[in-house]
Write a structure and sequence with these properties.
386 residues
């Protein structure tokens, strides 16, 4: 297999090369795997179709490790933890937390909040899918049984899917702001169990599309290289991953061209050629990357924002680290301590991992990055197209 062919761009990724890289990442023993900082994130991405990177969303997948959120002295999930969540708007199950808190939420959800392992979400807004990651398949089956006693009825026998309304419907008569299955607008939830995951969508058709042996995000070259780098740095700094987002090269584009990432699984070289056709004028920014992961980390030294960018070689990764640090200094206001590291995955690529540490346990850098991203402000991940 060849290594990550240079330069990513919009989500870059050739699933063929990734299939081999994926096997490398999964050859850890079960005990070792449990200790991997990226274990839960990888578990979630393993169930996300690789095709989501072609829908034109610069950050097509978001993830929250519920167990990693800071707790109060009595073990409860306090306001501080809720304020730390940066993906509340993208994760449908979390919308209800803002109305009643964890106590009301779990009463309506049918499961205790502390029994949730993680949440993840992906897909376009009109067909968004949320994953409730649980401890095992038994917990998922029990939650399905509980929902059947709470206004959910079967709409598909194979696969088993239950729903509390018409597909993609908004029924204000069913609104319950504290209920993650209906929310403030009474949105329909269609629900399906997949091993230790309960998937939530607004229509059963979105869930049936998940069936089958399609390539997943962990079969994509850019994601494997980026995860490899993030895992290495998280281990080295003894950090846990609170939340993370997978991004494509679209996040570094001033003006996106969705056509670049669409089609029959273009390889990284084709993606690069298309990207470089977009402009003939040199721009300040990073070398073109294949994709990456942004993560909110926590360690004994405090909170940190980490970027792991996938490159074909460590020369480009080295330049990216210098450029990324310079761009933060130029356009961002949060004081940080920057530490960059190149992590090579032999025969596949090289990750440029930049860790921006902040004082104390406040995720100020993550907050500023997400705010500028959502408001289309200064783009620290901007790609320089030459």
């Amino acid at each position: 297999m060849t290594r990550l062919k240079l330069a990513p761009t919009r989500h870059a990724a050739s699933a063929r090369i990734l299939a081999v890289a994926s096997s490398i990442l999964m050859t850890c023993t079960a005990a070792h795997s449990a200790e991997k900082p990226t274990a839960k994130l990888e578990s979630a991405l393993r169930k996300v179709p690789a095709s989501v990177t072609t829908n034109g969303d610069p950050m097509p997948v978001v993830f929250l490790d519920v167990g990693a959120l800071p707790k109060t002295p009595d073990g409860a999930l306090g306001d501080k933890a809720l304020m730390r969540i940066r993906f509340a708007q993208q994760l449908r199950p979390l919308e209800a937390l803002g109305y009643g808190g964890p106590g009301d939420w779990q009463e309506k959800a049918g499961i205790d909040f502390d029994r949730i392992s993680y949440f993840a979400a992906f897909g376009p807004q009109d067909a968004r899918i949320d994953y409730w990651g649980l401890a095992d398949a038994g917990v998922a089956a029990k939650l399905m049984d509980t929902l059947k006693t709470n206004n959910f009825g079967e709409v598909s026998a194979s696969p088993l899917i239950i729903s509390n309304g018409e597909p993609r419907a908004i029924n204000l008569a069913n609104r319950d702001p504290k209920n993650p299955w209906s929310g403030s607008m009474g949105k329909t939830s269609a629900v399906m169990a997949m091993d230790a995951v309960v998937a939530q969508a607004s229509a059963a058709a979105d869930l049936t599309a998940l069936a089958g042996g399609k390539a997943s995000m962990t079969d994509t070259e850019a994601v494997i290289v980026a995860l490899h780098g993030l895992d290495a740095v998280a281990r080295e700094t003894e950090s846990t991953i609170i939340q993370a987002g997978v991004f494509t090269p679209l996040i570094g584009m001033a003006a996106g061209d969705p056509e670049i990432t669409q089609g029959a699984n273009p390889n990284a070289t084709q993606l690069t050629e298309k990207m470089q056709q977009l402009t003939q004028q040199s721009q300040a920014g990073l070398p073109v990357y294949a994709g990456g992961v942004v993560a909110d980390l926590n360690s004994a030294s405090g909170a940190a924002l980490a970027f792991s960018l996938a490159y074909a070689n460590c020369d480009d990764a080295k330049k990216a680290l210098a450029d990324l640090e310079a761009r933060w200094t130029k356009g961002m206001t949060t004081p940080v301590s920057a530490a960059g590291k190149m992590v090579e995955l032999p025969q596949h690529g090289c990750a440029a991992v930049m860790r921006f540490g902040t004082k104390g346990d406040e995720p100020d850098a993550m907050t500023e990055f997400m705010n500028t991203y959502m408001q289309r402000g200064f783009n620290v991940l901007k790609i320089a197209l030459r």
